[in-house]
């Protein structure tokens, strides 16, 4: 039976980063992925993901403080540009609870931000059409990560550090024991001293087989891309990332990203209905309609032509905080669901923490907030 120090299940954003960090620290690593690397059925594929300090919980700001420099280090190692600074706009009706809590937390954490009026916003970014009663702030370090390139970079570097990567290799059974673990696939059974499980929308089923029922619900998050009337105005560098607290109007918070690498401008809803991760992925016309309605009301000429929509998975926890923990009986089995639609930006740091946890049971950043036993205040 082929033997490794660490096996990682799932090569999305989290698993690819965990494999990279484990391999870089000298572990003999096996990374198993049920589909091909950078496939479209999980959560991590695509042109772009937001990275921001804009959060209402200090722990995510602390993670972002680690993540930003670590993405730059990865860029240097892989010799590729992965993160592009874009500026970030947040707006909401006055007295919105999430908006106010975000401002308070960012101030407490001394994150620079600029409160401006809607008129000033329109002066700086004429692409917006925001009513005068809205509250607005800017956070200049908000950036866009080239998502698929990040995943591929982690996989490529993991291999460079000696990891074995097996695509199209679904794990069918996990057999932990006191010393390690056996991982069964259709063609081979592998053994290792430790296991990291980062299976995205498939986590609940996989962890259920180990006696742990995770409170996870995969939902059909949809990316909608549009070609604007004047495409140049919506390119990265000209148009910022935005978060719009308009749940009362659209059912969910709205967000958007500038066009990057020919993507078109992206507009999405931060929420959707549950989906079966193995089922069909047919874009929802109603979500496209809401993105279009948002664009017509709050932007100028952004949504002239619908280019494409793609259904991706948000794996949601009830409180939208991440789950990162160890198996109660087998501490060398570490598992993580850092999604709820906002995990990508931290995947480099979380990968490192998972590798540390698997090897020593300790991590350089306190993850107790993310353990299943945490009361999550
Ligand atoms: C539309 C959309 C927009 C988003 N926007 C942002 C954003 O702007 N900023 C941000 O920070 N985050 C964002 N997120 C969230 C972020 O992308 C996710 O948190 C992150 O990608 C989760 O990565 P993952 O590795 O946990 O899951 P995945 O990428 O799904 O990876 C899990 C992998 O495990 C594999 N797998 C499952 N079961 C098995 C098995 N039995 N054997 C082998 N392999 C298996 C799967 O095939 C998959 O490749 C967004 C997500 C979506 C969908």
Please give a structural write-up.
By secondary structure, the chain is α+β, with helices and mostly antiparallel strands. The protein folds into 2 domains: 3-45 and 148-215 and 319-370, FAD/NAD(P)-binding domain (3-Layer(bba) Sandwich); 88-139 and 217-316, D-Amino Acid Oxidase, subunit A, domain 2 (D-Amino Acid Oxidase, Chain A, domain 2, 2-Layer Sandwich), CATH 3.30.9. The protein has helices at residues 13-24, 58-78, 97-108, 118-124, 147-160, 203-208, 247-250, 285-298, 347-360, and strands at 3-9, 29-32, 49-51, 83-85, 88-92, 114-116, 135-139, 143-145, 164-166, 171-176, 181-185, 189-197, 217-227, 241-244, 254-257, 265-269, 305-316, 323-326, 333-337. Strands 1, 2, 9, 10, 11, 12, 18 and 19 form an 8-stranded mixed β-sheet that branches. β1, α1 and β2 (29-32) form a beta-alpha-beta unit. α1 (13-24) packs parallel to α5 and α1 packs across α9 (347-360). The longest helix has 21 residues, at 58-78. It is globular, with a radius of gyration of 21 Å.
């Amino acid at each position: 039976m082929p033997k490794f120090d660490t096996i990682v299940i799932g090569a999305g954003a989290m698993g690819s980063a965990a494999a990279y960090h484990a391999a870089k620290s000298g572990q003999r690593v096996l990374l198993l992925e049920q589909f091909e690397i950078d496939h479209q059925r999980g959560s991590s594929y695509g042109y772009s993901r937001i990275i921001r300090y804009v959060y209402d919980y200090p722990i995510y700001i602390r993670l972002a403080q680690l993540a930003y420099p670590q993405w730059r280090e990865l860029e240097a190692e892989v010799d590729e540009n992965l993160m592009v600074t874009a500026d970030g706009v947040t707006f909401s009706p006055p007295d919105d609870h999430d908006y106010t809590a975000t401002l308070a937390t960012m101030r407490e954490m001394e994150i620079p931000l600029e409160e401006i009026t809607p008129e000033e916003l329109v002066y700086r970014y004429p692409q917006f059409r925001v009513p005068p009663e809205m509250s607005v702030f800017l956070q200049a370090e908000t950036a866009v990560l080239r998502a698929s390139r990040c995943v591929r970079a982690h996989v490529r570097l993991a291999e460079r550090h000696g990891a074995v990567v097996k695509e199209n290799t679904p794990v069918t059974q996990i057999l932990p024991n006191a010393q390690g673990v056996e991982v069964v696939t259709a063609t081979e059974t592998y053994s290792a001293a430790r296991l990291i499980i980062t299976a995205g929308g498939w986590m609940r089923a996989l962890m259920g087989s180990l006696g742990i029922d995770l409170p996870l619900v995969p939902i059909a998050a949809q990316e909608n891309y549009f070609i604007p009337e004047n495409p140049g105005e919506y390119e990265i560098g000209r148009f910022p990332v935005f978060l719009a607290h308009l749940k009362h109007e659209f059912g969910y918070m709205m967000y958007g990203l500038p066009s990057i690498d020919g993507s078109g401008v992206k507009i999405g809803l931060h929420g959707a209905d549950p989906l079966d991760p193995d089922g069909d992925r047919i874009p929802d016309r109603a979500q496209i309609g809401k993105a279009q309605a948002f664009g017509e009301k709050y932007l100028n000429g952004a949504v002239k032509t619908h280019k494409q929509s793609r259904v991706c998975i948000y794996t949601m926890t009830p409180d939208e905080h991440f789950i990162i923990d160890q198996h109660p009986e087998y501490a060398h089995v570490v598992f993580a669901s850092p999604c709820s639609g906002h995990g990508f930006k931290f995947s480099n740091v979380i990968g490192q923490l998972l590798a540390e946890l698997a090897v020593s049971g300790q991590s350089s950043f306190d993850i107790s907030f993310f353990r299943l036993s945490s009361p999550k205040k």
